[in-house]
Specification:
Layout: H1 3-10, H2 12-16, E1 20-25, H3 28-31, H4 33-40, E2 45-50, H5 64-74
Parallel strand pairs: 1-2
Length: 77
């Protein structure tokens, strides 16, 4: 089972929702115009911005979602 399949299985309820929150901190690479445009192009995705250098844990801390997002952002529009 690949990472994508494991995420789909683990988060099946979240995937079925019509709205997804994309949590990010406000570090410059995350707020770059190209990145924001890609995220805004996704239907039903809302950006939830967190303070830069927040001590709160985020989903990107585990690295799994970070790699998936990097691949997505490399895809030409």
């Amino acid at each position: 089972m690949g990472v994508n399949d494991a995420l789909k299985e683990k988060y099946a309820t979240v995937i079925r929702q019509k709205r997804t929150l994309f949590q990010q901190d406000n570090v410059k690479p995350h707020t770059a115009e190209k990145n924001k445009e890609k995220i805004y192009d996704l239907e039903g995705v809302e950006i939830l911005s967190r303070p830069t250098h927040s001590t709160d844990a985020t989903s990107s801390d585990c690295g799994t979602i970070s790699a998936t997002m990097q691949n997505f952002l490399r895809t030409p529009i």
